[in-house]
Amino acid sequence: MFIPEQRKEPSENESRAAAAETLAEFAHQIYRDGIPSSVQEYVTKLIIDQLGLQLACSRLPWSQAAYDYVREFGATGSSTVLFHGLRTHPEHAAFANATFGHGQDFDDTCQMVQTHAGAVVIPVALAVAEEVDATGEQLLRATAAGLEVMLRAAHAVSPDCLRRGHHTPPAAGPFGAAIAAGLLHGQGPRELAQSLAIAGSFSGGLIEYTQSGGSVKRIHTAIPTTAGIRAVALARRGMTGPLTVLDGAKGFVNVFADKGSVERLTDRLGTRYIIEKVGLKAYNCCYFIHAPLEAFQFLMRQKNLVPSDIAEVTVGLSAHGAVHVGSIVHPVDPLGGQFSVQFTLGMAAYGELPDLDSYSDEQLADTRFHAFADRVRVETDPVAEAEYPENWGGVVTLTTTAGQTYRRRVRYATGTPQNPMTGDEVWGKFSRITSDALDGEQAAHVREMVRDLPALDSVRRLSALLVRRALQPSR
């Protein structure tokens, strides 16, 4: 258990420890002493899911753009760009792998704090662990510490950060990335606090893509990876920042939220892990769509309905959810589709559930899906609004052409902490989405290593398996 360093009560002329100092102390302690078994189990699931997505999404158009950028940059180093096998500087490897990991809208999400933490912290931890030749245990602990710090930073500005138009991964991500990188580089609490103090100057990110699409969201988890790694590199070379970067008058919480909570940064630190509130995704679309998608599927199956039976669909979400996934009715690109509940229900009506290859050009041009999308109305639901942001549930009402009305509410979609994916389901997703990236022998070796990361003597052995077969060293 984390026990903050005992300090005497500050006098009138002294100040209390800044949140960055307390978080740095916490991160250093769990990196040194270990993490609870339940947290280790959760982090392992997140690593499995993220590695699968990095491999599976490594050849998408926006992923290829990130890879080409990194390759043409020409930096040298010992960190691996997954699937492609390029060895480069950890900053560039992390940037590419994070783009891959968020290359679809299929990666982990924490509803309570509204962010994608795995696709930020895990690429950083893996890249730096390769650089310093860390063990699997060190990778696990650094990942856990980075995730927890990033999640707490995001929680402190939730839900205002998204409501104001800032995306939480590039906003809060630099802090988690800096913690993971700093720990693996051997930074102590004071040095880690300075890395956090520098990292805050990189915070940013806009969510206009939810209104009109585009592929830039794919690098929103990559941008903070470079920020965190750079912050650590600069701190190691003597640069300093404001230790009140998180909780100061002009610090992160007060800038990114109208009604932020500085207390959330350290509340029950070490006794409650927000990591355990992170959910995995069973569907490749925005999490706001998952609950109404499952409600819609249930009603269509239970009542034996076909698309021509439906006159109207009403989807009830929180006010933010209604704007977030209800603004784009007729998407013209994959990201627009992943943020359109209307179009996604149109796909589902015809048996197409969002998976890795969904929202293809053919699907986006399918007039059946667009015609059905016109029958979907999105509104604010009082129950969903009251439960937001801790829960992203929704309610669906179907009205048939015969005048019948059916209604179903789903509060916890598959993959949420309240309705989690099992270990077998997580590995099933990994196997399904990586089937054309890894052969069966590779996948089996990856599974063996990740299931027992504490026993892994060098992360480099794992990274060597995460490239296409032709590039692997002979065994």
Automatic annotation (TrEMBL):
Signal peptide (residue range): none
Domain of life: Bacteria
Entry-linked Pfam families: MmgE_PrpD_C, MmgE_PrpD_N
InterPro entries found in the cross-reference section: MmgE/PrpD_sf (IPR036148), MmgE/PrpD_sf_1 (IPR042183), MmgE/PrpD_sf_2 (IPR042188), MmgE_PrpD (IPR005656), MmgE_PrpD_C (IPR045337), MmgE_PrpD_N (IPR045336)
Residues of the MmgE/PrpD C-terminal domain: 283-453
Gene3D superfamilies assigned to the protein according to its UniProt record, in alphabetical order: 2-methylcitrate dehydratase PrpD (3.30.1330.120)
Alphabetized GO MF terms: lyase activity
Limits of the MmgE/PrpD N-terminal domain: 21-262
SUPFAM superfamilies per UniProt: 2-methylcitrate dehydratase PrpD (SSF103378)
Family: Belongs to the PrpD family.
Entries under PANTHER family matching the protein: 2-METHYLCITRATE DEHYDRATASE, 2-METHYLCITRATE DEHYDRATASE-RELATED
Protein name according to UniProt: 2-methylcitrate dehydratase
Lineage of the species this protein comes from: Bacteria, Bacillati, Actinomycetota, Actinomycetes, Kitasatosporales
